[in-house]
Specification:
The protein is α/β, with parallel strands linked by helices. It has eight helices and nine strands. Helix 2 links the parallel strand 2 and strand 3. The longest helix is centred in the last third of the chain and has 24 residues. It binds guanosine-5'-triphosphate and magnesium ion.
Amino acid sequence: MSDPVVGGNASEQRTIVVVPTLNEALNIGELVRRVRDSVPYADLLIVDDQSTDDTVALANAAFAGNPGYRVHVRTGPKGLGLSYVEAFRRVVAEDYARVIQMDADLSHDPASIPDLLRGLEDADLVVGSRYCPGGGIKNWAGHRVALSRFANLYARLITGLGVGDMTAGFRAWRTTGLARLSLETVTSSGYSIQVELLVRARCAGLRIRESPIVFTDRLRGASKVTGAVLLESIIMPWRLRRYAAKVKQEGTWRLLS
Ligand SMILES: Nc1nc2c(ncn2[C@@H]2O[C@H](COP(=O)(O)OP(=O)(O)OP(=O)(O)O)[C@@H](O)[C@H]2O)c(=O)[nH]1
Ligand SMILES: [Mg+2]
């Protein structure tokens, strides 16, 4: 099948969409269908942290027998960061060329996936950004926008990274880039994974670009953000600042190889 995004043969550009889930029964069916409509040539990996609702059953039903779609139900400690690291290590080993990461709650519109993939033509990481020209947020109360803006500024100032949307969870990666991040040494177990992977990407010399996305507040289901997750997000930028300084000092990214 011809790849509608970058031209050439889709199998040369093997693509997988990775979606972490925790109790997303109200969203997962629609998410699966919209991903299939947007990028029918891509595979799909749902990384579930033992949801106690029907997320897994409803995902499997929505797959409709598609052989490239699967759910991996994790065991051991739960966490968004732990889930992404496990999934990314798998897809790197499985010989995919491109990886999309996105939330399950429809805040990230699957229709934007082709734009992110197109950005990979001259980048190793494309960050779907709410805070660049053309990007935006729908249906968020003023205090949510202010909190997100503050979190971004905080992470940017402490890590020194010049990315507009540091905490965004809608991204496209070249797996050759992901493979250079020493995923086995990632320390974030929760949402701070987003900032940690950005800092590691920059330290490893990956080409990073931003592509505008419109983020919509979750319409259904509950947020999974906990106090522990927030605390880790406050501490992590300081750890990453030390990490980046050490990498710079040691030169040639020895820390990461
Ligand atoms: N596997 C796994 N997925 C998680 C975990 N926590 C959250 N998720 C998923 O990660 C994505 C982002 O979580 P959300 O709860 O939407 O976080 P958020 O967007 O900051 O919060 P809301 O604005 O309330 O939606 C969703 O797909 C969740 O189901 C976890 O511990 N493990
Ligand atoms: Mg959400």
